Amino acid sequence: MPSWWVQARTALIAVIGGGVAAWLHIPLPWMIGAMFASAALAWSREVAAFKGAREGSLILLGLGLGQTFNGPVIAAVVGAAPALILAGVITIASGLVVSRLFMRLASTDSRTGFFCAVPGGIMVMAVLGQRAGADLPSITLAQTLRMVMVVVVFPPLITWLAPHVADTAFSVPRPQVTVWLPALMAAGAVVAIVANRFRFANPWMLGPCFMAIGLSAFDAMPSGVPVPLVDLAQIGMGMSLGIRLTRSFILGSQRLLVASVLSTLVLCVLLAVIAVPLALVFGLPVAGAVLGMAPGGMPEMAITAKALDLAVPLVLGFHLTRVVLCNLLIGPIWRIGVRLGVA
């Protein structure tokens, strides 16, 4: 059990890293700064997060995301469903495109290469890959490194594509913060605990998020979630990524490291190029579509959208759709790829 001093030191370094990144005006500063600072500490020192830090961050993130929905925004997201489904299928199928590259660079079998390459989220791909008989440690390492790469690459890319531009169809005024904020946070925590008990996917974020969406849709949100709490959630998310990047984790398989970095760069370019015409065809904001198709995890990409004020409900819709489709289509897409000789 890590000592309280190790946990406190890790948290302090993460906060300092986020503060420095904010001072330097780096996109998504609190998350990226906390991630790099805690990763630097993890390289030579023991690191640990306080128990419940990631879960608490996800609860805050879920509430902050849910408050961005109302009736018209929900209707706009539902209206974009064909684009969301098409994007989800394309994103999953992109794993077939890069799995061959990954397999050759990392010297894995084709099955493991596929589950390492598909951008479906760390936990989702670990569970599905293990069921399919792929190598679980390789999947966990590859998906974690991909997540780190996407968090670093996409915020500057999105800032360059659409700096400070919000799409009115997918945005609502930020609710006012009231004395009911503690009650809202407590209710979000209870919903998250219940969702976790019933083994929902990503319960700590999606439970509070759906609760807040329901309240917002009926104009019953008791309080907004202030920006400092969203920044705190960024720090928690960044720290949870950074503390995984220990020396042994990074240097444990250098071939896998190279394969993960190169395949992620290929995925980033491929999906960004596809997202632009898809957005234009369906009349969606380009920055939101690019972030929605980014090969990162739902919490990380949603908090990126939140921090950059970019079509949060749309981005969340893209990633929610992808999670559902991953559970439905990963197996069939893998089998089709094998029959076609591309997997």
Automatic annotation (TrEMBL):
<dbReference type="Pfam" id="PF05145">
    <property type="entry name" value="AbrB"/>
</dbReference>
<feature type="transmembrane region" description="Helical">
    <location>
        <begin position="257"/>
        <end position="290"/>
    </location>
</feature>
<dbReference type="GO" id="GO:0010468">
    <property type="term" value="P:regulation of gene expression"/>
</dbReference>
<feature type="transmembrane region" description="Helical">
    <location>
        <begin position="177"/>
        <end position="195"/>
    </location>
</feature>
<feature type="transmembrane region" description="Helical">
    <location>
        <begin position="84"/>
        <end position="102"/>
    </location>
</feature>
<keyword id="KW-1133">Transmembrane helix</keyword>
<feature type="transmembrane region" description="Helical">
    <location>
        <begin position="225"/>
        <end position="245"/>
    </location>
</feature>
<dbReference type="InterPro" id="IPR017516">
    <property type="entry name" value="AbrB_dup"/>
</dbReference>
<protein>
    <recommendedName>
        <fullName>Ammonia monooxygenase</fullName>
    </recommendedName>
</protein>
<keyword id="KW-0812">Transmembrane</keyword>
<feature type="transmembrane region" description="Helical">
    <location>
        <begin position="310"/>
        <end position="330"/>
    </location>
</feature>
<keyword id="KW-0472">Membrane</keyword>
<feature type="transmembrane region" description="Helical">
    <location>
        <begin position="12"/>
        <end position="37"/>
    </location>
</feature>
<feature type="transmembrane region" description="Helical">
    <location>
        <begin position="114"/>
        <end position="133"/>
    </location>
</feature>
<feature type="transmembrane region" description="Helical">
    <location>
        <begin position="145"/>
        <end position="165"/>
    </location>
</feature>
<dbReference type="GO" id="GO:0016020">
    <property type="term" value="C:membrane"/>
</dbReference>
<dbReference type="InterPro" id="IPR007820">
    <property type="entry name" value="AbrB_fam"/>
</dbReference>
